[in-house]
Amino acid sequence: MSITPPETPPTVTGATPAAVGRRKLTLPVVLLIIAAGLVAVSAVRAISGTSTLTSAALITGALQLAVPIALAGLGGLWSERAGVINIGLEGMMILGTFFGAWAGWQTSPWVGLLAGIAGGMIGGAVHAIATVTFGVDHIVSGVAVNILAVGVTTYLAKVSFTTGEAAEMGGSPRQSPASDSLPTVTVPGLSDWLATVEGKHWFLISDTAGILGGLITNLSVVTIIAAVLFVGTFFVLWRSAFGLRLRSCGENPTAAESLGVNVYAYKYAAVLASGGFAGLGGAFLSLVSIHIYNEGQVGGRGYIGLAAMIFGNWRPGGLAMGAGLFGFTDALQLRGGGASLHALLLLIAALTLGIAIWQAYRKKYLGAGINVVVSVLLVVWYVTTDELPGEVVRAAPYITTLVVLALFAQRLRFPRAIGKPYRRGQST
């Protein structure tokens, strides 16, 4: 029995009154927010004298760091929209890094990408069998996938990279031989012109040029593929009958079953796709970022991707924003160090003050007062120091993860049946 998207929200979406009454951001409002953000960043750059904040090099680096996080989060979105919690994204990314590098150096990096996707899907299949077929607790299964991935790749690396041609080409128990590079894209003419404008250091204009230049200079083809996957995910999950059925499995699987949906099949498809996306993110690390597999190179990006997905409220657009935020913070601590993150204190103080003004307008005076105090403390911290301690700099991406989740936890609307056990026929 086929299901077509109705004109009004179906009951299986499980929307709460608060969610229904919440205003959606229109395009003019989004553009206004972006413009305000650009002005704020430009002001911080001008006041602090730190040109790194909006440089093309930083934006390019942030984009490269954000892509694997975004792909892992996209995998989590597919799985959890179907009702399956997936904290095994870290392990699926690890499998993607190994199999991508293993196939990449022997054949071509394009084959390596496919092998990385396949490796992640193997992890997804293990998770799906455990949770969907056997009803294992989703958290337990995800942890098991992470542990198994570390053990399997450690063993396979010792077997694959320490003998024969691999050893001669620089392989070791913790590292693969280098693979060829994937092509990059630069818009000729426009990229050079934007670099020239960026060098003028004009307020707002040069900052905008630096950001745009970073988005069109030395852009990996895998980054373009990732952007296409985000757009495709939106249309598949929110603009197709297949997506409606899949999301209904995460909202109310018994109701979906009563309408003829094969819930098991959709959950399997979602978790396998989840593993494929995470595996592609892992392959990005070993084929695009540094061209080799290194033990431990995932470095918690699977968990950060999960946090970005939660920050994005299980939506592709919000997920992309969250991944960009974490990638930007990571790039700052890698390229600019303590001085760049020190300048960022002013930006955070300005954002906090803006939130305080909005809360005061909404007559939430307690929250407004707290945010004003936080804003003042951040300004005092900026004025009394020259740069942030090294420990804070290195932990910046993880601190950002915790702060973002703490701030947005109350506004989340997760799938209603996520993590709940389901058995075929329980609706009868």
Blueprint (SSEs and pairs):
Layout: H1 17-21, H2 27-48, H3 56-81, H4 89-106, H5 109-133, H6 138-160, H7 164-168, E1 184-185, H8 190-199, H9 205-216, E2 219-220, H10 221-238, H11 241-251, H12 253-258, H13 263-289, H14 301-311, H15 316-361, H16 365-384, H17 390-394, H18 396-408
Residues in helices, as a percent range: over 70%
Strand % is: under 5%
What is the spatial order of strands in the main beta sheet? 1-2
Distance between the ends: 17 Å
| Global outline | globular
Largest sheet, strands/sense/barrel: 2 strands, antiparallel
Please tally the β strands and state the result.
2
User: What value does the Rg take, in angstroms?
Assistant: 23 Å
Number of helices: 18
Order of helices and strands: HHHHHHHEHHEHHHHHHHHH
Poorly predicted runs are 1-22
**What average pLDDT do the residues reach?**
86
Describe this structure in words.
The chain is mostly helical and 428 residues long. Helices cover 71% and strands 1% of the residues. The chain contains 18 helices and two strands. The protein has helices spanning 17-21, 27-48, 56-81, 89-106, 109-133, 138-160, 164-168, 190-199, 205-216, 221-238, 241-251, 253-258, 263-289, 301-311, 316-361, 365-384, 390-394, 396-408; strands at 184-185, 219-220. The longest helix has 46 residues, at 316-361. The protein is globular and about 60 Å long. Residues 1-22 have low confidence and may be disordered.
